[in-house]
Amino acid sequence: MDQINLSDGEWSIMNVLWESSPKTITQLTAALKESKGWSKHTIITMLSRMEAKGAVRHEEGIRAKQYYTAFARTEAVLNETESFLDKVYSGSLGLMVNTMIEKNSLTKEEINELYAILKNAEEELK
Known about the structure:
The protein has 2 domains: 8-69, Orthogonal Bundle (Arc Repressor Mutant, subunit A), CATH 1.10.10; 90-126, no CATH class. It has 126 residues and is mainly α. The protein contains 6 helices and 2 strands, in the order H-H-H-E-E-H-H-H. The protein starts with 7 loop residues before the first helix and ends with a helix.
């Protein structure tokens, strides 16, 4: 997957589509109305931009266009993680993790997951 930068709003649409595709514009509007309050026209504009970026694609349906994601969630998360680390990391992983701990941003489960990841990484270095 090429580098595709998604806005927070585009992530919202992608998450709905990853949960269940295809979706029509009407279905997307209904799914996001309560949390985002977006109109049909907002969804149409966003989908047009996302299609131009290569994030979504559509097929002509019987009554309406059917929208799909153009790549898997795992690809997008990996891409976003790499982009984030390029921007923020600047050689101090310890500082980044420490900041997350100080802000109480990590749950017990996430800390345990980090331990497991680090243990696996250490074993691979042996």
